[in-house]
Model the fold of this input.
Amino acid sequence: MQIVTIGENYVMLRDETTLMTKRVYNFSAGPAVLPEPVLAEAQRDLMALPGVGASILEISHRSKTFERIIGEAEANLRQLLGIPEEYTILFLQGGSRLLFSMIPMNFVDAGHPVCDYLVSGSWSKYAAQEAVKFGETKIVWDGKSTNYDRLPCKADLQIDPKAAYLYYASNETIQGVQFREEPSADNVPLVCDASSDFLSRPLDIRKYGMLYACAQKNAGPAGVSIVILRKDLLARSKESLPGYLNFQIHAEAESLWNTAPTFAIYVVSLVTKWLINEIGGLEKMEAINRGKARLLYEAIDSSGGFYAGHAQPEFRSMMNVSFRLPSDELTKQFVDEAEKQGMTDLKGHRSVGGIRASIYNAMPLAGVEKLRDFMLTFHNQHPQ
Ligand SMILES: *Cc1c(COP(=O)(O)O)cnc(C)c1O
Done:
């Protein structure tokens, strides 16, 4: 046990061995695994921020210290994704689900009465269901007929050139299908829900009108969403909107119109710092993520059908690996046995069934190797 003195009045007890050995490999879809160096730094700052003497939980969102923290979070995001000046970055509450409503509320207007939705899985479907309440919503493609195991090709999409925007989800967290590249929207602004693959790979932000992500999959804890928005689109936000739901108001106030989710933004600043300093940027992160995903998909493909992947191979997600076993009974055994061996949260979403392994940025290679080895052993123990 290590005793760390903080200021004059406090000590913090720290047991390195407990911290390291009691952590499982957590395959949760979200809130999800965070990098250990981030958790260790947050643990320290929970008692007292160095040089401040108060917890990260206790300081004003208008203090110099927090201004520095939110400034760092933004600067790190700009550096990682190469976000140019024409884009504003907002830190908002309400999660991705609130953005499902805010997007049509802000962007559909008299000049752009129609919005286009590409439905590739549960989350884009839920987003389209909200849009209907605020504008004429056209479903330009829907993968429902094969239970969302694939994505459209260019020729499948007929975009209305006057549409307010084309909406899609870059990675469907439940079905495990992921776009390799952006669907082409010509001159229509592309709006992307990147909640579950944000910061997993580089991208060209200039292709987007707006890209957003709730933090709790790949960028931080629950409580904040990150919105990257081309500034010219702010002109569409109507004054009649409720204040909190107006992108323009948040942009003018630099995300401090009301009390910001300070702790969540602080953790985003740590995660992005980790990506820059310890991983070495998003190209490196993508290479690591590809390697991790390959291990699991190879185990699926070499199992002679014992494991059956949900997504068609060319649309497979690097982040959420969804697959089935031959029976519900074996699925349950797989989940229970894996948990006993320190691999948790592997049960698939009820709409797809089977297993889902979420292997976000912070899931170490060792965790994926352990799961791959477990898959091979489990198959050998249950020959069909
Ligand atoms: C988790 C998730 C959401 C929902 O996020 P909330 O913050 O719970 O509203 C939306 N879209 C995608 C792709 C997700 O993975």
Notes: The longest strand covers residues 136-142. The chain has two domains: 64-276, 282-381.
